[in-house]
Specification:
782 residues, four-stranded antiparallel beta sheet, 22 helices, elongated, alpha+beta, Nucleoside Triphosphate Pyrophosphohydrolase
Length: 782
């Protein structure tokens, strides 16, 4: 037990230096300690409507953000100007811009609003919207929260009949009851575009009143609006009290104590006031009577009014320049920061319900346009609301500078693509003609891929035009074997010699070249073949012209000259062996190992020798035979040594060449064929067909084929299958197997000995198969 010493006061430890028992600050007697927040009284929808109609400042707060968010419309990013114009006409017909602005205003005023869409889908308003049978949008009806009442069934909105647009949501009513002066009806929620004025916490005392909607804007700005509204009125009244007249009367108390004293005093005051107002003078008794005027100060009143306006601007998110129409106060004050904040606030409105509902409306209109055959399909689009503010001169200059930098980047990218052979220079020029702000990633179209013959890079535009006309005449609408679009070949020249490799099929020596695959430009095809056969990365190339290929080939060969490349030539040992450099004399005279040069390659060397910058210093034409066209012939008894040192004649080589071809007698045109190579000859060819610049991966995704291994397995399965049950087929003159599955639209071609050559889905289906039969001279494949 503690011992208490009498007369000694216990010392207190005070941790709060502001605690003071004299002025009661921080104690229970301090009035400031008892301030607490209390929610205001509820406001009826009638009061909100009357306040909007009668208070100009409040109506400006409601209207300004809604008008600024919608006044410049939307940008859908549709490149087809005709389609964009058609869509704009539909939107203007239903007055979407004014309707959506009205919906935003009512949402801010009442806490929520909805746009009822009258959609022509063959159903009633109370039925779920049928997205798959939309014929158009006829009209938009706008209602505030006070006119629409949610009708709950399960508390979870869903549309089980709609497979494409099944979008459920907790807390969304199934129906709305519309009570308007123009009629009452029930509408399904899927036909309504709902606008909310932010969200309200579930624990709020007003949550039940504004459930599924939002908070009326007035509840947030009520006190600030009142202060800003009555402040100017009180300041006007203050002017009446700026000066106060005082009247001193001798023995005033004694006079008032008499029976008539009050009347006497009032009469005297009225006389003095009347004289002051009429004569601007007063007459008083010199003994004990006096009249004085006291002036009151109005210092600080302006600051109080400014603070009230600033508070209203803060809670409404609208700058004073927009709300009150006055310039910002203070030195060097521009109000740019306030305007930027307001722009972000308006942008938030645009990126919320406004954009989502606009996307729904645009989708419905486009579906109606497809049904009415105004367009073939729904285009790609992105809903973006345009800014409500026009840029200043400085901003325009900055934007122009940024646009110029972007244009330079696009040009550099396109130049890189041309250099690497991804696109041709002519294709870039066409893209620039179509659109100055062209996208290098979208230069090639489907039509370009099918029709382009790689004329970009020719020495002159006239040569390119002439060659293109000749190609079109030779093609005559045909597509060559493997479903490709012709052939390419080229010359890699170094120190006066031409790069060659020995073909694996026994047809002699030649340079890089091969088939143009479907949806591949000739330039890309040549670079691919050079990489596959010789392992080099070809850079810049020049188009020389075209040359006739093998006798059975319909389309001519597109010829290129390689200006630069990277890597050391090494043959793939699949299609080519023994990369070697030969002079033009050796190629034309066929003074090469084995004594045989691939005939189309030899003829192209002779034809384009001058364009290659080469000369024939040691070549004697008199010692070499020419064919009926005057070209140097590969026929004759020229002898040479093979790699083993044994001499062979060209006749022997031709005989070996025939043996190198596929034994067509062992291949069944209609029956089953067993493939020794269960796939493509090598991984590179598989990759080329599946993903390296091709679209086969995208073509077979709907069939459930998502990997290159599945694609390769499907190709082998189709080629080994006998004809029947929707599968058609034939055998080419070279002994290759062709199969077409009419049910799945798959065309495959391959060799039982060397594997799959290609498999793809022809754009024109069975018509393509028929053309291939005609090209092979097969009249009936039954």
């Amino acid at each position: 037990m503690k011992k208490v010493i009498p007369g000694k006061i216990k010392t207190q430890l005070r941790l709060d230096g502001y605690y003071n028992v004299l002025n009661k600050y921080g104690t229970q007697h301090d009035s400031t300690e008892y301030y607490q927040w209390a929610s205001g009284s509820a406001v009826s929808d009638t009061e909100l409507a009357d306040l909007y109609a009668g208070n100009g400042l409040f109506s400006t707060i409601i209207d300004a953000p809604a008008d600024d968010a919608t006044k410049n419309g939307i940008d859908l990013g549709i490149k087809d100007k005709d389609l964009q114009k058609q869509l704009d006409n539909h939107l203007q017909t239903i007055r979407y811009q004014s309707k959506f602005a009205k919906a935003l205003r009512w949402a801010r005023l009442f806490g929520g609003a909805a746009v009822v869409m009258l959609v022509d889908d063959g159903r009633l308003l109370q039925d779920p919207l049928n997205w798959r049978d939309v014929h158009g949008v006829e009209e938009l009806l706008v209602y505030g929260r006070n006119e629409m009442y949610p009708l709950w069934v399960n508390g979870y909105e869903n549309n089980p009949d709609d497979e494409d647009y099944r979008r459920g949501g907790t807390g969304i009513p199934e129906y709305y009851q519309v009570n308007s002066v123009y009629g009452n009806y029930v509408v399904h929620s899927s036909r309504c575009l709902v606008f909310h004025n932010s969200d309200i916490p579930e624990s709020s005392t007003m949550a039940n009143l504004y459930r599924t909607w939002g908070i009326p804007e007035y509840l947030r700005i009520r006190e600030e609006l009142r202060n800003a509204s009555i402040g100017p009125g009180y300041s006007i009244r203050l002017l009446e009290r700026l000066s106060m007249v005082t009247y001193k009367m001798k023995n005033l108390a004694g006079v008032l104590s008499t029976a008539d004293g009050e009347d006497t005093v009032l009469q005297r005051m009225e006389m003095l006031d009347l004289a002051r107002n009429l004569l601007n003078m007063v007459i008083i008794d010199a003994d004990g009577e006096d009249v004085g005027v006291q002036s009151l100060s109005v210092a600080g009143v302006k600051d109080i009014l400014d603070n009230a306006c600033a508070m209203l601007s803060a809670v409404s998110h609208i700058p004073q320049t927009r709300l009150f129409g006055r310039s910002p106060a203070g030195e060097n004050a521009t109000g740019e920061s306030d305007l930027e904040n307001y722009k972000e606030f308006v942008g938030g409105l645009q990126n919320g319900d406004l954009r989502d509902n606009t996307r729904t409306l645009v989708e419905l209109i486009l579906r109606g346009m497809v049904w009415n055959r105004e367009v073939k399909e729904i285009p790609e689009y992105t809903v973006t609301y345009k800014s409500a503010w026009s840029p200043s001169d400085d901003e325009k200059a900055a934007q122009d500078q940024a646009a110029a930098a972007a244009q330079l980047t696009r040009a550099q990218t396109a130049g890189t693509y041309v250099t690497n052979g991804i696109v041709e220079a002519e294709e870039v020029r066409r893209a620039m003609v179509r659109d100055e702000q062209f996208d290098p990633e979208n230069i090639l179209t489907e039509a370009d891929i099918h029709q382009d013959w790689g004329l970009g890079g020719a020495d002159t535009q006239q040569e390119a035009a002439d060659s293109q006309q000749q190609n079109a005449a030779d093609a005559s609408g045909f597509v060559t074997d493997e479903g490709d679009c012709g052939y390419v070949a080229g010359f890699v020249v170094q120190d006066g010699k031409i790069l060659c490799g020995r073909r694996s099929d026994g047809q002699g020596w030649c340079g890089p070249g091969g088939h143009i695959e479907p949806k591949e430009t000739p330039g890309v095809a040549f670079r691919r073949e050079a990489k596959e056969e010789f392992g080099i990365d070809v850079g810049n190339i020049t188009y020389l012209g075209n040359c006739k290929g093998k006798p059975e080939e319909i389309l001519p060969v597109q010829i290129y000259r390689v200006n630069d490349y990277a890597g050391i030539p090494v043959c793939d040992r699949e299609e080519m062996f023994t990369a070697t450099w030969f002079t033009p004399e050796q190629i034309l005279a066929q003074e090469v190992p084995g004594g045989l040069v691939f005939d189309p390659f030899r003829r192209s060397v002779e034809e384009y020798l001058e364009q290659l910058g080469l000369t024939l210093d040691d070549f004697d034409p008199s010692k070499h035979k020419r064919d009926e066209d005057g070209k140097f012939s590969s026929m004759g008894n020229t002898t040479s040594k093979d790699e083993s040192g044994k001499e062979k004649s060209s006749k022997d080589l031709n005989d070996s060449q025939s043996h190198a071809k596929i034994n067509s007698n062992a291949v069944s045109a209609k029956g089953a064929n067993a493939f020794k190579v269960k796939g493509f000859p090598n991984k590179q060819k598989l990759n080329n067909h599946w993903q390296n610049g091709r679209t086969h991966a995208a073509e077979y995704a709907p069939d459930g084929i998502t990997t290159k291994e599945q694609y390769e397995k499907r190709a082998v399965q189709l080629l080994e299958s006998p004809c029947g049950n929707g599968i058609k087929g034939y055998k080419t003159k070279d002994g290759l197997i062709c199969r077409y599955d009419s049910k799945k639209n798959d065309f495959a071609k391959g060799s039982p000995e060397k594997g799959v050559r290609t498999m793809f889905k022809p754009d024109d289906g069975e018509e393509y198969y028929r053309r291939r039969l005609e090209a092979e001279g097969i009249e009936n494949d039954e």
